[in-house]
Amino acid sequence: MSIDLVVPEDVDLTTLLDELRKLSWAAADVLMAYARGEEPPYGFPKSLTVEEGGDGPVSAADMAVNELLISGLRDNFSFKEWMILSEETFKKKTSNENIYIKDWCWILDPLDGTKDFLQGSENYSVHIALAYKQKPKIGIVLIPERNELWIGVVGNGAWYENRSGIKKHVSFSKRFAISELILVSSKNHQQSTLLSLLSTLSFAKTKKIGSVGCKIASILRGEADVYISLSGKTSPKDWDMAAPHALIEAAGGIFSHADGSRLNYLNPNHYQSGCLIASHGRSHEKICQKAMEFFSKEEPEFKV
Fold first, then answer.
1. Which domain holds residue 126?
2. Where are the alpha helices (DSSP H) in the chain?
3. In this structure, are 41 and 107 located in the same domain?
4. Do the domain assignments include residue 303?
5. What share of the chain is helix, strand, coil (3-state, %, to 5)?
6. What are the tens digits of pLDDT across the range 50-80?
7. 186: which residues sit within 8 A by CB, 6+ positions away?
8. Among 12, 37, 57, 281, which one is least packed by beta carbons within 10 Å?
9. How many domains does the structure of the chain reveal?
């Protein structure tokens, strides 16, 4: 894949990734300071206030990392022809400002797994994605408590590295049969239709992790094999999925709707609705086939 499909022509990929590393580890410092009740760096307030909104809790940590990432992206690059979509700032924009007219867009989730973070779990992450024409091309998933920075560049591979820059490769499991696969699932988003679908698929085991980024990382480490998201009363948003999507695709896995269609980003409502399936790819077609058989028989009105 030519480089101009991954970054703008006048942006150097190596330089971009170096800056993203700096921003990511700075975000890790902020989040871990809040998690430990310490004074956060860069002048952010120490008080960890929490507000319940329509999409769940928002903390001072969310807002601090949001500010850190957006200011870093705007200040450190001469290229200005990209938009920035963030979970924490989306609600403040007018409808006209949500019309994306530029090809390049950053999609940010400054704290994915806020409930895990507030509960003291290590399963929270930071998502940074760069999308080109509604398709994510670069995916960054930072897991501060594990000292892991996952980097995926579609067409160029994926890996993770620690703060010292020591890199390790993706290690998908060799499990193939559906009955052998390990599912990674949400702790807080279980519903009857999803449980029925999972009963039909009959995976070998289920691991429960909060953050989508942490779920995908568990697949990339070989600890799990598949993740399924099913819309219920709410749907995940672009910022939940874009960075993990780019990451697993760059690693050679697949992230699609149950019917095999692609996820598209930056639509007006930013929902990622339906039945979304991410996997190491070896059994993806079979999983999708069995899922579609389930919906055809049990939930024919469900829009996958």
1. 3-168
2. 13-35, 60-75, 87-90, 114-118, 192-201, 212-220, 238-250, 284-298
3. yes
4. no
5. 35, 25, 40
6. 765 545 555 788 899 999 999 999 988 878 7
7. 208, 209, 210, 215, 229
8. 37
9. 2
